[in-house]
Amino acid sequence: MTHAVATGDSLTGALDRLVDRVHGAEFAVVLSPDGLPLGGSRHVGAKLAEQISGVVAGLLALGLAATRTCDAGELRQIVVQMSRAFLFVATIRNGTILTVRIAGDDAEVGDMAYEVALFVGQAERHLPVSLEPASSVRSGDAGVHTRLR
């Protein structure tokens, strides 16, 4: 069964449904290619969205460096395993970034990986396709939009 992802006011609803589908999922945030929060699931306030944005910026920099060093193709997903939680960071072809936190001893990590992949696969049909980092517009660089594919 596939689940639709939507834009605008319903992005929060789509992220809420993503979190609701997996036991242990706590929140989901979608960031622009520049790292600005575009939407979040329930209980994601401005402070948390800003913190996630900073964390994701660092993780993406490391992920992109790893793809260059390992000559392993495009960066698609980063998973951070902590002692009590996982953080999934997935890139979407239009440059947006999905971040999901899942926690708990009985969290369904495999289910979350599956749902993240589904969301990413469907999101590019529903999120704006013209999103690119502001820096790439000024410099002519293809920016994160190209590097994250």
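Next protein, fold it too.
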Amino acid sequence: MSGTLNKVMLIGHLGDEVKMHYFDDKNCVGRFPLATNETYTNRQTNERVTNTEWHNIVVRNKAAEICEKYLSKGDKVYIEGRIKTRKWTDEKGLERYSTEIQCIDFTFLTNKNEQQGQMPKTNQPISQPQQSTQPSVTPEDDDLPF
């Protein structure tokens, strides 16, 4: 295969609010950090270890405005995009590099009603839970590998 692929898919939590930068009346860029976690059990100490990786997300124009309006710190979001490394010069004249995820598509995964502890309003009365006629499966009876 002679082609290449630069594709990133992330599900994580916003580490801060979306920061907007406006260039003219049509163009803008939104930037925010996204945290993804990896959790595993250390075999030697038998303790759970969590590693957090931070990603710099860049969203453009209308998508950036939507993210600014609906996303806030801690929200869970799916991001699809590509990796882009920028080279820039800092105030001391040193060349610096930043690796970013240029967002192409996104999906909000945090339900605002759940986040605020509210239940959606319905016109149906709340009924008592009914007994299940099926036997419950305990983890010992479950032979699935996952």
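About the second fold: The longest strand covers residues 28-41.
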